[in-house]
Structure formats: structure tokens, C-alpha cells
Amino acid sequence: xxxxIKRKFKRFEKIVVFLLAFILSSSSFVPSxxxxxxxxxxxxxxxxxMPIPKAYNVVGSINNIxxxxxxxxxxxxxxDIFIDENDYIYVLDSGNSRVVxxxxxxxxxxxxxSPDDMxxxxxxxxxVDDNGDLYISDTGNxxxxxxxxxxxxxxxxxxxxxxxxxxxxxxxxxxxxxxTGYIYVVRGETIMAIDGNNEFRxxxxxxxxxxxxxxxxVRIFGSEQQKTAMARRTASSYINVALGxxxxxxxxxxxxxxxxxxxxxxxxxxxxxxxxxxxxxxxxPITNFIRKKVLKSTVAGSTFKFGEYFDDDGYYMExxxxxxxxxxxxxxxxxxELNGKIYQYDQEGNMLAAFGxxxxxxxxxxxxxxxxxxxxxxxFVVDRLNNNIQYFDPTEFILTVHExxxxxxxxxxxxxxxxxxxxxxxxxxxxLAHAGIAKAYYKQGRWxxxxxxxxxxxxxxxxxxxxxxxKYEVLRExxxxxxxxAVIILAAVFLFLKYSFKAAKKAYWxxxxxxxxxxxxxxxxxxxxxxxxxPVDAMDGIHYYRDRINLKSSFIxxxxxxxxxxxxxxxxxxxxxxxxxNNANVIFEGVKLFIIPITWILASFAVTSISxxxxxxxxxxxxxxxxxxxxxFVNTPLMFVSNLMSKNQQSWYGVFSxxxxxxxxxxxxxxxxxxxxxxxxxxLRMCIITVFVMLVIWLVAGMVYVLSARVIKFVLxxxxxxKVNFL
Length: 727
Hints:
By secondary structure, the chain is of the alpha+beta class. The chain has 3 domains: 60-284 and 320-394, TolB, C-terminal domain (Neuraminidase, 6 Propeller), CATH 2.120.10.30; 402-477, Tetratricopeptide repeat domain (Serine Threonine Protein Phosphatase 5, Tetratricopeptide repeat); 507-713, no CATH class.
């Protein structure tokens, strides 16, 4: 029996997955295909790229070591690159088992092979300390080789002896050496520290695994066999590391929860920009289902992400940041392997520019493996498949951006303001410039100006900081007047509620007592208003006097709700707005507002008609439209009150939104129960079935929409082709 249920569920799951994928893959849910133009840009979200002035120009490429030696002139499978404080370049030419050293003029000045009898075997990482000593991750030989600047052997580091190291083989890949002489080497989920005596000094920076409700339940209630079979969850693995001038370890990883790019402090905590808090709540099975089974698009919403989760053709991808470089000002540059893009971020994790891509022409890559930046800001990228190194010089635009972010980071707000103003002269829509000016205004105490710039930058956090200061300033300067106005407004609201409730109650009793008179339009609106606090009485009146209700009043209530929704979009305070005014579509907002009530009417009528229901469709419609009254009643004052609130009060603001939906659900449930004389249990079952039928209606409607759109597109393309060929 259990096996039959499992097979049925699997079959149902496949159908649902197919329908979801079919609809979502053909809707606006998937980002549009990006233009293949060679442009630099920043990403506002996963589906929109904002073009910016050219940030970097490709200058040239290094394809061989020149005339330094006769044998093996060309690079072969280069894996890593390092640039020291004197701008000397060290290329780990892994396929040739050597390290090539180039001077600042890109001329080969040295070639180092293994300093002992054991040749390098698939080396993957190179690091050079302040003394010019080289450290090579000799991966295939399970060792780290320390060489002098002349290429002579100094010492060899192997797997340190410690019970904490475990039985995993020692396969060092990427590494750095701190100023204290500790070697930090990537080791799967962690970064392992080794001291100068080859002693184990700890595992560093393990990413958080998070909390799993299902795993906890299995551990508490599961059998021993289930506990044994349960897969062990592991942390995300690290990919690469770099050492900043601030002594921090910068790293890339596969951590999709907190963020793939990290800045680790002395105790291994990530202090760089994060996606969210890991392990602070329960997993969402619906979100996880869609993410895993359909398009994995929940990770690519409008919230911040490093890099991009969709390629140039609009297909989903999970970025692999192969290497990371940090300049002496803390500017972070990373190279992504799957789309060949270079992404650059400031000291706080804000994107400065994105450029590059996959391809064969200059400025593009086949398989980028490493990246480095010299003291002048020139970027070097190793392409292991093309066996070359391309280098890019910064433009005036990106250099000005760097000056602005660095000035702000150092506390020189006047210079930051000046530099950001220059950036806006070069590109007026560069959001980060507006954010930088907003920060400068904030530091200068110009709260209102900071709010304006924060809004242009679409930065709600900055806006909130400035708004809180501006609000307190206005409150201090106009305290008496504000209190006076508040008293008047509260008194007016009290009187309005008092007399409007009185009128609504009068309309209700008038309808109930005049048994032979049809409900008037105004009376119907007041009847719906009275149902807010007396829903049971309202449903009884609709049920027993169904022939006298007036659906015209319901249409007016719907029109009022629509007006409230549109007004809400334009009046609600910016940091609490759910959508951007510039992106608002009043038709789509109407669809979002009415899709649930309308499909509830249809589904409820269908379900109750075959389940001993007594309700007619017109009374279901009238009772359902009453469910829009909480939306009108709460959101009308809330849109105005929100202008006194900021993002810091978002949780309180969200409570009112939750009240609206709970209120609507209660009205829908009471309508189902009282209009059909159902028991509580049966009404609950009918509501659940109705919701399921609503989902089916949405899926069918979505499929019809998609198929219709494709048929229309096909017909139009066919007509266009006929015109081209025969007219």
C-alpha cells in the first residue's frame, strides 16, 4: 500500500513540476535574454543590467615567455598568478611544471622549476611574501614547496600531524602566507592554518550549515536505520583565497546562502556583505521544491547577489568564482568561470562594474583560472584553455569611482562628494554615485538632500538612516504644532469612525427589516462596511435574503479597492513600498488584487454545488467581495501613516498587512460555512478543496495564456515571413 502511494505521489509530482516549469519558463518570471553587445554594466537585480561607461580596456595579452629560454616557450595550462608589491608577476605555468617571473614591463626575468629531485606535479597555487620567497602548492605531490627568490629550496610543508586534520588526503590548492608566517591553504570546507614548523594551527572560516527541521525530526523520532541512512550535511567548500593589505583573508566559496565572496577576520568570521542570516529559521518546502525541481530561481530575486545567476542567454547558472584579487585600497575583483565575467566590488560589497565574457576575441576568455591586480590597477587574467594572460587598464570612469569609494572609506567625505559628482558627470544614472553622495550628505547633516540621493540610488537603508534623523529634527523644531495637529487628526478619525459605524449599522437593520425592498447601492456599500465587525450577521442576512442583495454595490466596492491599491502605490512611504513606482503597472495590480476573490467565487461555487451546498453564485460573489473591505479599511489610513514610518518599523508595518489577509480569510471561511449551513469541520474541508481548485484554475489559465501567446507569435512570424517572401 505504501509503495502504491509513493508511486502515485511521484506521478503527481512530475505533473506539477511539468506544469510549473512550462508556465514559468514562458513567463516574465525568467529574465530576458541579454544582449550580446560588448558592454560594461552593473546589475540592479538578476534580470536587469545597467550599462555604464567602459570600466576597463583590454590592452594586450601574454602568450609566451619570449626569448628567455629555447624550450617550452609557450604557456601550458597556467593555473595561478601572483603580483608582488614591486609589480613583479609570477605565473604558475602548471602544464610546464614551472613558475615564470615577469618584471613590470612584462619581460620574462626568471623561470623556476622544482628545486629538488621531485618535479612539480599539477601545481595549483603560488604565493610570494614580502621577502620575495615563493610558496608553491605542489598538489599532485601533496606538499607545499617554499623557495627562495632565486628558486632554491628552503623547506617543504606536508600534511601536519593532528587528530583534528582527519584522514582526508593532503591536496593543497590555493594558499596565502600571513605576515606572521602562517600558511593558510584551502582545504575543502575550511581553510587550514600551518605554522613555520609545519605544525597544525587550526581550521579556519568554516561556513555555517544552518538548521534543518527534517534532520532534527529524524534524530528525535527516527529509527536507528533512518539515522544511519541520513546523509551528513556538509558546509560549502572554498575555492580560492587572497590576502588583503589590511591583513584580512578574502575568499571565494560555493556558499549560496551567506554569499560566495567572503572577508574573514582574525577569528574566521565573515565581515563582508552577506545575503542573509544562515540557520535562523525553518526551511520553506515550497520554495525549496521550486528551487530544486524547476528553475532554482528563488536565489535570483531582486535581492543582492554576487555575480549573476543567469547567463547572457537567460539560462540559470550557479556562479563559480574561480579567483579573487584585492588591491591596496580594498577594491575586490573576482573572475567567474562559467560566463567568463569579471566582477568588481567596493569595500562594502557594492558592485562597481562587470565586464568580459566567454569567447575567442580579445577581452574574452575560454576558461579563466586566475586573476591579479597590480599597484596601478591593471588587471591580469589567466586563461588556462587559451594558455595566455590578458591584461586590462582602468578607464577614467572606474578610477574616479575607486577614488570616491576609497575617500569615503578613509573618512574624507568632501573628497568623496567631489569624486562622486565627477562620476555623475560621466554617467548620470550610476546608482552607486548617488548612494555615495547620499552618504556624504548624511555625514554633513544634510538629511533631506541625503534622502533625495538615496532614493535616486534605490537604497532604502541609506534613505532610512537619513529619514530617521530628519524626522527627529522636524519633531524637535515643531513639537507643539505636531502634537496639536495629531490631536485634531485623532479627533477627526474618532468622529468619522463613530458616525460611519452608526450609518453602517442603520443600513444593515434597514435591509433586514424591509423584507420586500431590494437593497440600494449605497445601502449595499454600508452593509459591506458593517460586515467588517459583524461578519456573522452579514452572512446570515445574505443567506436568508439572497434575492434582495444588490451586486452593483459589490462592483463599486471592487472599484474602491482598486483605487485604494493604485493610490497606495503612489502614496506609501518609499522605504516600505513593495514595488517601484516607475515599474508599476496599474492593470497588473488590478489582476493581483482581484485574482483571488474572483477565482474563489468560481471555485467555491463549483465545490459547493456538488457538496450539498445551498449558496447561489450571486450571494457567494457578494459575500466574497465583502472580503475586500479589510483591505480598504486598513490600507487607506496606512498609506498615509506609512510616511511617518521607515524601514526600521517594517515589522510593525507588516503586522497590519498580515491582519488584512487574516481578516479576509475569516470572512471567506464564514461565507463558506454560513451560506451553506455547513458544520465547522465540513466548512474547513470545503475551503481546502476550494483552494486546490483555485490552483488548478490558475495552472490551466496559465497554460492557456502561454499556448495562446505562442500561437499568436507563430502566426505573426508566419505572416511576416509571407510578406517578406511574396509581397
